[in-house]
Amino acid sequence: MLFVSEPPGGTNGRPYTGGVLDNPRSPRVRAVAKLAKRPARVDTGLFLLEGPQAVSEALSFRPDLIVELYATPTASERYSDVAEMIELQPDIEFEFVSEEVLTVMSDTVTPQGFIAVAHQFPTSMKDIFNAEPKLIAILEEVRDPGNLGTIIRAADSAGADAVILTGRTVDLYNPKVVRSTTGSLFHLPIAVGAELPNVIERATKAGLRVLAADVKGTSLLDARNSGDLTQPTAWLFGNEAHGLLDEQLSLVDAAITVPIYGQAESMNLATAASVCLYESAFAQRSAG
Question: How confident is residue 19, by pLDDT bands cut at 50, 70 and 90?
Fold first, then answer.
């Protein structure tokens, strides 16, 4: 049976079994719910994890980050594997909550029974480049949370060494971003708040060739055939609506476009990023 932390005012915080937090207006519930908004995340350095998948990945890879964990009794029974993982982490404060309380805490319309509060954990650019990466993604002014989360997931899947977000990109710890990563947030280093010229300069000094994904570039097929993609590479992806500015493109080694062979008017940013990252992953592994 899972242990539940006694609410404030109990027996000095010692665990006890039974009990469900069912007051949606309690200060504790409101504090968790506020983390759906950026000001609260900035003030506290915390963020929300929602659903059994995200909680499971955090417990597997970075349990040290988890501050509080909540679940409905129904979800705990349904996802018994996650419940067993929680039992193996006695230092994490855990509490059962009602469905109503979980709905108030959650950023989603239909929450999946688990919510965790965790410490934010961005990686420094210094650490990323000191590790001699061979493949990284740089994101400049990516504004859609779903796109950002999907690109992080694609970078993880392609075996990229890191992801770097400029300060103009959507907050990494936005709940929609976190959900879209489906746990990849915990699998690779991610830096935030960088300035694009500085990132490109440091990538170049680290021996990476910087390629920008842009419709004005040469074909990705040409880059593949020339062997350029076998080199250590930093892919730069820009804003969904207007892409990259000419002044930004002037900083990179080459601009590359993903050709469209059908009748589609354009390609979704996350899809294009996935193609580019995998092309580099294929080329580097074939050469290696």
Answer: confident
**Strand partners for 4:** 16
* C-alpha to C-alpha distance for 266 and 186, rounded to whole angstroms: 31
pLDDT tens, 59-104?
A: 999 999 999 999 999 999 999 999 999 999 999 999 999 999 999 9
Q: What 3-state DSSP class applies to 162?
A: strand
Q: For position 13, what pLDDT does the model report?
A: 37
Phi, psi torsion values for 125, nearest 5 degrees: -60, -35
Which sequence spans correspond to the domains of the chain? 4-119, 125-287
What is the rounded average pLDDT for all residues in the chain?
92
Phi, psi of 95 (to 5 degrees): -150, 140
Rounded Cα–Cα distance for residues 87 and 89 (Å): 5
Q: What is the pLDDT of residue 34?
A: 97
Q: How many CB atoms lie within 10 A of CB 53?
A: 17
Got the DSSP string for 83-137? HHHHHT-TTSEEEEB-HHHHHHH-SSSS--SEEEEEE--PPPHHHHHHT--SEEE
Angle at 227 between CA 137 and CA 211, to 5 degrees: 30
Q: What superfamily in CATH does domain 125-287 come from?
A: SPOUT methyltransferase, trefoil knot domain (3.40.1280.10)
Fold of the domain spanning 4-119 = 60s Ribosomal Protein L30; Chain: A; (3.30.1330)
Helices 80-87 & 52-61 angle (0-180, nearest 10)? 30
The pLDDT tens digits of the residues spanning 123-173 come to: 999 999 999 999 999 999 999 999 999 999 999 999 999 999 999 999 999
Q: How many CA atoms lie within 13 A of 55 on its CB side?
A: 28
